[in-house]
Amino acid sequence: MKYISIKNHQTIPVADIPVLAYEAFSDVNIGFVTDHPERHCVNYFGYLIDNQVKLICCIADDDSHEIFVSACLVRADEKLKSFSSRLLCFEKYEREIHENFGIDYIDHPWLKPVRYAQNRVDKSEIMANYPFFAIESEELHEVGVGPIHAGVIEPGHFRFICNGEQILHLEIQLGYQHRGIEQLFLEKKSMLQRATLAENIAGDTVVGHTSAFSYLWESLCGFEATEDIHFSRLLALELERMAIHTGDLSAVCTDIAYQLGSSVYGRLRTPIINYMQEWCGNRLAKGFVRPGRNQFPFTPELAKRLKEVFDAFEPDFDEMSDEISKLPSVLSRLERTGVVSMEDILKIGAVGMAARMGGLNRDIRASHPYGIYPEIQHEPIIKHHGDVYSRVRIRKQEVKQSMKYLRQLIDRLPQQIAPDTRLENPKPDSFTLSLVEGWRGEICHCAITNAKSELILYKIKDPSFHNWLALAMAVRNNEISDFPVCNKSFNLSYCGHDL
Q: What's the fold here for domain 181-498?
């Protein structure tokens, strides 16, 4: 057997994952993805075992709802042929493996650093000698932006190569936010500590990451979440989607100097996050999601209050959205700006909105559904032009779609179940994979335990890990003044990438 097929949130014995020779491992996983747009890599990572590096690759099939998992054992001093030379979508995974373990991929397109992790093998690789791509020319010039930005934006460095105002190339250097969160998951032993780590992976995706951790931990402990747990998590996930999308629509308007849109959308974000404060005591939903329990049951009073929030929110949101859809000065800045082609979306393995903007139907809520998403029969919002306007339209329509789902759901509140307290003993020698569709796209958490039921690996993948390259592709041949609106139309996470 060359691989094992699992479902989302499923736990299996690590021993059930077939271990292949590297050449077979490479052929199997590249074969899964080649000429199959419905398949993509959701995680590919390594960890040390018996002085070797065990590689595990997880390929999701969005049509069959399966995840194909296979493994390989290699030495850290081996020179290997890269997956990336045949399929670019593996390039960042292999760069991370190289950075962490020193494995040399002899034909990788560019083995540059990913995060400058403290445990990187080559300590001579530092921010100061990052190998930026350069073009020698008297006509071209470079523009460096960051890593320190105006306001409160997180750190990241953008290096542009321009011909006048036209961007020919953008390289994005990250790693400034590296906090060693994956290692902390192994060091911290209580479930509460780990849940707190999960909700601090990315501050704008608290519900998304903590839900992924909770579903993973529940599966690892053999616990089946009750309907009220699924219900509250879905409501919180969709409210998080609504809040961030609305705030980002405000920011897009700011970046094109449309002050009315900036003000209205910015104001509309506030009652959504304030509602989360009413529900759980925190506007970003910190402390809300926990494995095995529903700490803040959704009550008829909360349902009534949410309807009031929506009734006030919806007419103003619709009016503002109609306005930016027909105003020529807005459309001229959004349409055909920051285009990423379907070909490039597939090459880089984009996920979430960055995939759906160009016609690729990639949404975990539909392809690998969980909780009560199967009951609502979610239909992903798909656009086809891959530009800023497509990303704006997805945000507008997903806000409306989430609101529609929540209006339907809060009319049938589930019975509240007493919390469970049996989640301190995960299964030994096990592997678990959890996929959740956050507002930005696909979140993937993986965990492996040893014979003592201790975590020996916790692997996190934020959707930004895939999609930063999409931003670099989007700005090519655009004017450098279009970069802010392109950047905000994706709104990718620095800390979610850097971990």
A: Cytochrome-c3 Hydrogenase; chain B (1.10.645)
- Are the C-beta atoms of 336 and 387 separated by less than 8 Å? yes
pLDDT digits (tens, 9 = 90+) for 230-277: 999 999 999 999 999 999 999 999 999 999 999 999 999 999 999 999
What sign does the CA torsion over 266, 271, 276, 278 have? positive
Q: Which residues pair with 45 in a beta bridge?
A: 56
Q: Does domain 4-114 have CATH number 3.40.50.620?
A: no
First to last CA, the chain: 34
For residues 212 and 434, the answer to whether their CB atoms sit within 8 Å is yes
Q: What's the CA dihedral at 270, 276, 277, 281 to 10 degrees?
A: -160
Q: Are 383 and 393 in contact (CB under 8 A)?
A: yes
At 381, list the tokens.
């919002």
Exposure string over 480-493, b if 16+ CB within 10 A, otherwise e: bebbebbbbbbbbb
Total Cβ atoms within 10 A of residue 134: 12
Confidence (pTM)? 0.96
Task: For residue 321, count CB atoms less than 10 angstroms from its CB and return exposed for 0-12, middle for 13-18, buried for 19 or more.
Answer: buried
